[in-house]
Amino acid sequence: MSRIIAGAAGGNPLQSVPGSATRPTTDRVKEALFSRLEALGVIDDARALDLYAGSGALGLEAASRGAASAELVEFDARASAVCQRNADTVNQALARKTVSVHRSKVESFLERAADGALWDLVFLDPPYPLDEQSLQAVLAKLAGHLDDGAVVVVERSSRSPEPDWPDTLERFAGKKYGETMLWFAEPA
């Protein structure tokens, strides 16, 4: 069972999405990821966005560790319902509504986002079968919604190629954890 690792909601269990359509980020990878993000100083008061959220574990962890807000975007009805239950748990632990859930396709959500909508920290953990062209299109749409100094984290299979970054994003790091590869980028 997955859980919030640290912060104000630390220790709270997270419900998992039933079935095998999603692949949760392991606690080991999550801990390493958030250690790096804390070292970069990008979590405190961040406006976080968790695309292809699954259970919402990454956005919820950011909220627990001090992000000002976290938006979870998930299209699958069952996964979106799990996101909402997990968000309710974290919002209750934080004693404020920090996390919101959007049942939407990622592309549609980004197209509808207001021109002034800016995020500081974005997680993309798309299904492994998502092709590289579709991922690049999402990254290109996302780039117009990033604040200065924003960090984008893409989680993929270690067997997948590096994302084809649009000109508006520049990779600054990558780290492999077994089957999982994390790519870090920032506005170019």
TrEMBL record:
SUPFAM superfamilies: S-adenosyl-L-methionine-dependent methyltransferases (SSF53335). CDD domains: AdoMet_MTases. One of its GO terms (biological process) is rRNA methylation. GO terms for molecular function: methyltransferase activity. The keyword Lyase does not apply. Keywords: Methyltransferase, Transferase. This is 16S rRNA (Guanine966-N2)-methyltransferase. It comes from Arthrobacter cupressi.
